Amino acid sequence: MMDFMDYVQNAFYEASHWNRNNSYGTLTATSQGKFTQSSSVSPVQSSLTSIPALLDFPTPLGIRLHISSLSTPHFASSYTLASTGLLTGSLSYLYTSLPLPSLPTATRSLSLPAFTPTSYRQLLPLRPPDPPWWWEIWHAGRRIDTRDALLYGRLYLPNSTLEALYLRRLSPTSQVKVSAVSDSRLPNGGSMLALLAQDKGKWSAEYMYSTDSALLGVRGLYNFGPDPRDAEEGAVSLAVEELASSSPSDAIASLAENVKKTATKDSVEPVSRFSAGAEVYYGLLNKSGGMSTGVRFATLPAHTGFPYTMTVTLNPLMGNLSSSYSVRAGDLLSLSSRFDFNVYSYESGVVMGMELWKLRENGAGDEFGAERVGDGKTLGRSEGGLLKENTAEGIGGIAGCLKARIDQRGSLGLLWEGRVKELVYNCGASIDLRGGKDMISGVGLEVQYSS
Questions:
Q1: Which of 207, 345, 220, 221 is closest to 282 using CA atoms?
Q2: pTM of the model
Q3: What phi, psi does 213 have (nearest 5°)?
Q4: Contacts for 331 with CB less than 8 Å, ≥ 6 apart
Q5: pLDDT tens-digit map of 22-69
Q6: First-to-last CA distance in the chain?
């Protein structure tokens, strides 16, 4: 189940036209959600927010209650109360300069996939970055436009641990992200991570600095195939021609249509995408570093068969090699597997997982990923599995979602996500099939309500 603040942050990315999937950090997002140390990457990956995954999904521990609200288009708050033998909680606040007036947040009017998006991330064709002049706002001969920003803070009680995030769009192709944590139990009382990201469509790059050991890092991703910026240049030239014979508003309105026409002219819509990336990092204080590299092959919506994604990642210094294969086997079923191997110790591991959605009896005829509403309108999905639109009429199609995974050691993880009236919940457990006194561990229930 997606955290409410992550839901709002994802809406900020979509509203500001930032593609989170075009990044080396989300190369294995379908199977793993986040990169982990065992999968050949560095600690800088911790800057990512939570991402639903087919294999590495967390199971709740104890009882946890979330109450959240988007009180204004600019401000959101969330409160958490948890009990795992010790009563704990947290207070979260978020501010965005980019208003989100049309973002639905009330659980009573949201479809279940809004807070429980499908873990299989269907990539979309690359889109060109917004032209820089789209961001210009002029008044009385002066530019008055500003850059969108997001501020987030979370205080954990009773430990008084503080998390903070500052996110700012610098241009249509760049943004800066600064995250920090303050905790007396950490070395030097906390740490800070700064990340400058660039997304050119064809390729992306991220430059990072962490106060932990004065860590410096850079990572990048390259997409093979046509460059979406070529279509943009042709569309802009057409818009300039129209600008000479029509009003500026008419030329801007037709630019999107020109992009589509130019992109499809003398070309065929791609059915797949092959991407390759790498990461290098070095700690100035401890004089140690590392690197990782990876490739991904994924089908696009134009592919006529079933969607699938294959990834391979390698950390040559640690010797970790990881390969994964994920497939959306049907409208309601996704499967994934991962094989890990260390070339130095010869240790290996296998993990298999699944995600199965259950339809309500009155929604048995609905297609997964497109919930029918009363007026016959279809709700599609955006990149990453989030619904593009959520209405009260669409909440009845999906009854719940079952996730399961098992590894070669017999460790079984189960998670059920559903809703009861105006509450969204998930419950799960970790089970050791080898038996013993701790055969069942990590049993928990998590409930979320938002308005």
A1: 207
A2: 0.82
A3: 60, 20
A4: 367, 368, 369
A5: 999 999 999 886 543 333 333 333 333 566 789 998 899 999 999 999
A6: 17
